[in-house]
Amino acid sequence: MGAQQEKKPSEERKYRNTQNNTQTSQVQWGRAWEVDWFSFASVLFLLMFAPLIVYYFIMSCDQYQCCLMNPLIDLLTGNKHLSDIWNKTPMPTYRAAGIYALWVTFQVVLYICLPDFCHKFLPGYVGGVQEGAVTPAGIVNKYEINGLQAWIITHVLWFANAYYFHYFSPTIIFDNWIPLMWCANILGYAVSTFAMIKGYFFPTNPKDCKFTGNFFYDYMMGIEFNPRIGKWFDFKLFFNGRPGIVAWTLINLSYAAKQQELYGQVTNSMILVNILQGIYVLDFFWNEAWYLKTIDICHDHFGWYLGWGDCVWLPYLYTLQGLYLVYHPVQLGTANAIGILILGFIGYYIFRMTNHQKDLFRRTNGNCKIWGKKPEYIECSYMSVEGTKYYSKLMTSGFWGWARHFNYTGDLMGSLAYCLACGFEHILPYFYIVYMTILLTHRCIRDEHRCLSKYGKDWKRYTVAVPYRLLPGVF
Ligand code: NDP
User: Fold this and answer.
1) Does residue 39 lie in a domain region?
2) Which of 296, 331, 366 is the last residue of a domain?
3) Are 89 and 185 within 8 A, CB to CB?
4) Which structural domain range is residue 312 located in?
5) 154 and 129 within one domain
6) Model confidence over 325-351: pLDDT tens digits?
7) Which residues line ligand 1 (CB under 6 A)?
């Protein structure tokens, strides 16, 4: 299950292309160079409304017991004014600022000062210095993979301080949730703005920068591909995993502690959400080296989308189920709880196995067994910006023969399980599955667009061999 990272991108035999770019269209792969009106409108919409959406959800829980409609009804009927809601919203506090600053600093220290030791004793785990994918400029970056270690140390310290030394209450995150949200926003905007300025004035690798000429698009989707400070502080790897994903399990633990404090017990739905999301988070860190080859790290540039998204959107909206269960403690019947657990496990299994199959296939250059047989694949080629030609393979068997993104399907099944754990009384916890469906469908289309410009006619052959995207026979 551990993703063995190759030392060189072994699946890609390369040679310098001397044929004067007969495939120039393929040189343009990577983030867009030009912005169409729809992308521009989406960017403006998200820049304006995404922070409001986060605020609206969290405020609805704080002031309206997680009922999404009631704030709107109150405002539309004149029962309340915006100022009434705003005046009841907790403001930033020095305490929250202190907690947040300490949190981020601690994660930075764990990230850059503690080389990984987990890979030395955990069989199958890939940590330490690893290489990322080839960038459009033909660069292979090195990363220090130590996320699992950071996660373990953080959680051991959390339990020790909250339950043994009693330095803080385990409900500390819930109790400061909205003040912390302002701090997360400040960091999210600061880091995105810094990344934009850095992209213009002191980029880490100018050849991997993209300027569309559209300020808002560049701010949101990023200019630099792999911004770094020094040799090791990689913005994408740090913000993608820490502080948001390390915090995810702590946030859920804090919600469980709050349930215990308020009701004297932790419901089975809260335990389910903690377990299923905990597995997802641990999977992320166990496979952090493998994530270097996923879209977030190896295709997306670093802008507001990743910077603000990782600081605010992820920790606040991916944890809505636990927050909801603090306000509505749902105790599921045994059959329902088991059904949800099974759905979550099946989803996770599909998600992990599909990702594993691709990883194994790419790592061994197709010299492996998928479901007991030699994998089938399509040979394809692409070019880097500098005109170097690379060869690669697209697998057409295993889960990758069922659909072109069956890993997303598994992810969606798991996401549905988290939501179902919250029962059917309110729609707020179902935001996650709606959002994930939109995100992964859009991502699927975005990825395929990129793969088409990267592989050209080879990608078309692949889509003929595997005609469905997410659900065989349906989509
Ligand atoms: P994938 O892991 O599916 O990677 C897509 C890339 O894989 C393509 O760009 C292509 O890259 C390569 N590829 C595509 N088809 C094949 C094939 N048949 N054989 C071999 N290689 C192929 O996508 P993501 O990086 O988006 O997702 C990784 C995981 O992370 C998924 O399981 C997803 O569900 C999860 N995820 C979760 C999110 C969350 O918020 N919870 C957000 C995003 C992702 P190449 O250029 O190398 O050919």
Assistant:
1) no
2) 331
3) no
4) 91-331
5) yes
6) 999 999 999 999 999 999 999 999 999
7) 294-295, 351, 355, 358, 362, 392, 394-395, 400, 405, 407-408, 411, 443, 447, 451, 454
